[in-house]
Amino acid sequence: MTVSMYQASVPRFANILGNLSAILDKAQAHVEAKKIDAATLTTYRLFPDMLPLTRQVQIACDSAKGAVARLAGIENPVHEDNEKTFAELQARITKTIAFIQSVSPAQIDGTEDKDIVIKRGDTETHYKGMQFLLGNSLPNIYFHVTTAYNILRHNGVEIGKRDYLGKP
């Protein structure tokens, strides 16, 4: 059985973002049970030069929707990056999953050799579709979801490996 570009992207992105959503539910329950300000967690950084929880969630979502949009050759929706609460982060995840799941397998399958160019400032990075998906997009999403997980775990939210893995 061959794994298609679609199978390696949309279902995997939706799964890990769904797991992130469930982890954020546990974080919300944690702040309510401990009667602490949610901003204590949403603004927390593991180290001063790292991004806070909110940015980790935003970047994970942006990576998923950006990868799907680029592979499918469609416009990438823009989100304002203004989320501050768990509810707002959950809405961001929901919007992202809805967008990526709106893209059909026919739009992504066969993009293994598609030219993908990522611009960051004045720098351009050139990829082929498969290289972009496996070497950039998937690792990036998992990095930011893992960092969000670590921020919450470090702050006492009772989550574990099963929460991170979910039900793949």
Question: Could you provide a short overview of the structure?
Answer:
Helix content is 62%, strand content 7%.
Q: What descriptive keywords fit this protein?
A:
two-stranded antiparallel ribbon, mainly alpha, 2 strands, about 170 residues, Four Helix Bundle (Hemerythrin (Met), subunit A)
- Poorly predicted spans: none
Helix content: 55-70%
Number of strands: 2
Quick one: overall form? globular
Q: Quickly count the domains.
A: 1
The H-level CATH homologous superfamily, spelled out, is dinb family like domain
Q: Within the largest sheet, what's the order of strands?
A: 1-2
User: How would a textbook summarize the main sheet?
Assistant: 2 strands, antiparallel
CATH architecture: Up-down Bundle
Structural class: mainly alpha
What is the rounded distance between the termini? 18 Å
Radius of gyration: 16 Å
Helical run tally: 7
The share of residues in extended strands comes to: 5-15%
Give the SSE string.
HHHHHEEHH
Whole-number mean pLDDT: 97
CATH class designation: Mainly Alpha
What would you note in describing this structure?
The two termini are 18 Å apart. This protein has a single domain (5-163), classed as Four Helix Bundle (Hemerythrin (Met), subunit A) (Up-down Bundle). The protein has a two-stranded antiparallel ribbon. It is mainly α and 168 residues long. The protein contains 7 helices and 2 strands, in the order αααααββαα. Helices cover 62% and strands 7% of the residues. It has helices at residues 5-34, 39-42, 53-72, 86-101, 105-108, 129-154, 161-165, and strands at residues 115-120, 123-128.
